[in-house]
Fold this sequence. Notes:
The protein is mainly α. Helix content is 43%, strand content 0%. It has two helices and no strands. The termini are far apart.
Amino acid sequence: MDKLLEIIKAVIMNKNVIIAAVACVLLMNFAGYVTRYRKKIPKPRVKKASAAPRPAQPSDGGGDGGDDGDGGADAD
Length: 76
């Protein structure tokens, strides 16, 4: 029984076995990451509203001292 424990200890402490075990763990973690990976849906870019000119105020027909349509004649 003591011989078996010595052999197991020698195998576990071997540099090549340790490197191979670490490589297997890293490979399995990477494979799990690849299988669970989901590409994030890109968010639509919101365009910033530029300072667009305001639409012209509708003419309501009075009060602004503008043309009243009579050709400039004064009403008495």
